[in-house]
Amino acid sequence: MLARLGPDPLRRRPDVGAFVARVLRSRAPIGTMLMDQAVVAGVGNVYRAEVLVRQRLDPFRAGRDHGTATLERLWDDLVVLLRAGVRAGRIVTTLPDDRERPSGRPRRVDSHYVYGRAGLPCRVCGTAVLDALVAARRLFWCPVCQA
Q1: 123: in domain
Q2: Is 92 among the domain residues?
Q3: Domain limits for position 28
Q4: Residue 131 CB: number of other CB atoms within 10 A?
């Protein structure tokens, strides 16, 4: 079972090359691929939505339509987000300047850019956040920032 898992961003020396190669071979949308544990291990629904908006990537664009540099930046951001989540014991993906209250411990309401915010304004551009069922889970995204 473990042999089928994709590279794990939390490992000491993760194999970003294997992740990039798997994504570049696929016609599947990047938003679907991030939920596939054979592509990348450990990315759940919150991290999927948040890393895609942080990287300004359209969740419906095919994996193979992204460049290597873009996928490496996506991977690097996943590493940062997952490690920070482990250290903090909670998922916070927003930068202080993008929160209602930029100082102090982030409140739950300030923790995410798009996840769980359908119909609410995007923290970056103010457009209403959308949601849809993708890979059997609700995906949240900003139609402007992630166009």
Answers
A1: yes
A2: yes
A3: 2-141
A4: 16
> Among candidates 61, 58, 59, 84, which has minimal Cα distance to 137?
59
**How does pLDDT run across 50-90, given as a tens digit for each residue?**
999 999 999 999 999 999 999 999 999 999 999 999 998 99
pTM, full prediction:
0.92
> Encoding tokens for residue 41?
């291990």
CATH at residue 59: 1.10.8.50
Q: Are 141 and 129 in contact, with CB atoms under 8 Å apart?
A: yes
What is the torsion angle, in degrees rounded to the nearest 10, for the CA atoms of residue 106, residue 60, residue 36 and residue 115? 20
With contact defined as beta carbons under 8 Å apart, do 35 and 51 qualify?
Answer: no
Helix (H, G, I), strand (E, B) or coil at 131: strand
Structural domain includes residue 19? yes
Residue type, 138: R
User: Which residues are within 8 A (CB) of 129 and not within 5 positions of it... i.e. 6 or more apart?
Assistant: 114, 117, 118, 119, 120, 121, 122, 140, 141, 142
